[in-house]
Design brief:
Elements: E1 5-9, H1 13-25, E2 28-33, E3 46-49, H2 55-62, E4 67-70, H3 77-85, H4 94-101, H5 103-113, E5 120-123, H6 126-136, E6 140-143, E7 154-157, H7 164-168, E8 173-177, E9 183-191, E10 197-199, E11 203-208, E12 211-217, H8 224-241, E13 245-254, E14 257-264, H9 274-277, H10 282-290, E15 304-311, H11 318-328, E16 333-336, E17 346-354, H12 357-372, H13 387-391, E18 402-403
Helix pairs in contact: 1-10, 3-4, 4-5, 11-12
Organism: Brevibacterium otitidis
Binding site for ATP: 103, 143, 176-179, 184, 261-262
Keywords: ATP-binding, Ligase, Nucleotide-binding, Purine biosynthesis
């Protein structure tokens, strides 16, 4: 029997980081990239360049592989249903993926499952937005249900007039109460078609201008009962939605527990720490799951792992700064995506594992920001840049994932 071939729709950094995992597993790896210069094309031996919105292109690509998965969540659901009907497995399938594609669908599902949601409403008029604001209180959060990412498609609204341009477009919008939270959390889960599951430790995250900048695994000071509840809840979501592959659930930690923020059904920025910090990375696990292979152990290698993103700034020559970082701190693991520099663009990330979360954060921040050209100090002050949100307080749960 020949080893299977996985087809990934999308040629971004997530597809790029799946490629080494596919090579290690011995499975074929094919990419449908948007352009010839998409960063995953540099590491994949089998590349098709085409439009993922065109069904004929998707169908031709599907015929070259045994299973399809995704680098992003933008493929039209009707195309995925047609592929599945034609005998081409898509994992996750369209019925699951819609909960990551449409935030209104996701909010309704969280309510149905009884998971902690913010107060929310679908609004299409200024009057409806004003009515919801009177109920939930201003300011509130307004989102485009589809297409938003990394801070795009999200606004803080202090009065209905600030949403007039979006409302004029005539499309439904998602209005949410603004949550008073202590820090942001995330958890990754994997689920295979046979129903096997694996959950990584809950992580603390820090957002900069709507983009995930840092993640710390496991989340320090997280109440053990809350960590257990989050792990159980994300398994409920994955099972109820029929997820195949890995899924991220992003959350707000509150005084009373947590509130669901968003879902992503693919490898996710908040799981990048697992490349160097877990026995099985999210990229290997995703491929195992979509191929229905036995899942790997998600437990952490060390008491703490920090991931810090390299976000584009004004520096174009990243290579010489990258050499400095390697020489300055040989324990830092640098992952670059082969992208051109653009301000705010995710160009790579660094991981660092060890004992002391605060010290790891200091070193990883210096490495990532030095590469980007934004580090003003070779010994940055840990107290700046959101550390208080990541570190929490008290003693965190054991750095173990769960597998069943």
């Amino acid at each position: 029997m020949t080893f299977p071939r996985v087809g990934v729709i999308g040629g971004g950094q997530l597809a790029r980081m799946m490629a080494p995992a596919a090579e290690a597993l011995g499975v074929g790896f094919h990419v449908l990239a948007e352009t010839e210069t998409a960063c995953a094309t540099e590491v994949s031996a089998h590349v098709t360049v085409g439009d993922y919105r065109d069904y004929a292109t998707l169908k031709a690509f599907a015929e070259t592989v045994d299973v399809i998965t995704f680098d992003h969540e933008h493929v039209p659901a009707e195309h995925l249903r047609a592929l599945a009907a034609a005998g081409h497995p898509c994992r996750p399938g369209p019925e699951a993926l819609i909960h990551a594609q449409d935030k209104l669908v996701m909010r309704a599902k969280m309510d149905e499952l009884g998971l902690p949601n913010p107060r929310w409403a679908q609004v299409t008029t200024t009057e409806a937005l004003a009515a919801f604001g009177a109920e939930a209180g201003f300011p509130l959060i307004l989102k485009t249900p589809r297409g938003g990412y990394d801070g795009h498609g999200v606004r803080v609204i202090h009065e209905p007039a600030e949403a007039a341009d979006w409302l004029a477009e005539g499309r439904p919008l998602l209005a949410e109460e603004k949550i008073d939270f202590t820090r942001e959390l995330a958890v990754m889960v994997a689920r295979s078609p046979m129903g096997q599951t694996a959950v990584w430790p809950v992580v603390a995250t820090y957002q900069q201008d709507g983009i995930c900048k840092e993640a710390l695994a496991p989340a320090p000071g997280l109440d053990a009962e809350l960590a257990t509840q989050i792990s159980a809840d994300v398994l409920t979501v994955a099972g109820s939605l029929g997820v195949t592959g890995v899924m991220a659930m992003e959350m707000f930690e509150t005084a009373d527990g947590y509130v669901v923020n968003e879902l992503a059904m693919r490898p996710h920025n908040t799981g990048h720490w697992s490349q160097d910090g877990a026995i099985t990375s999210q990229f290997e696990q995703h491929l195992r799951a979509v191929l229905d292979l036995p899942l790997g152990d998600p437990s952490a290698h060390a008491p703490a792992t920090v991931m810090v993103n390299v976000l584009g700034a004004d520096r174009d020559d990243l290579y010489h700064a990258y050499l400095h970082v390697m020489a300055h701190d040989p324990q830092v693991k640098v992952h670059m995506y082969g992208k051109s520099v653009r301000p705010g663009r995710k160009l790579g990330h660094v991981n660092l594992t060890g004992e002391d979360p605060a010290e790891l954060l200091r070193r990883a921040r210096h490495a990532a920001d030095y590469i980007a050209g934004t580090d003003p100090n070779p010994h940055p002050d840990l107290r700046t840049g959101g550390a208080e949100h990541l570190l929490g307080g008290g003693t965190g749960p054991a750095a173990e994932g769960t597998r069943s």
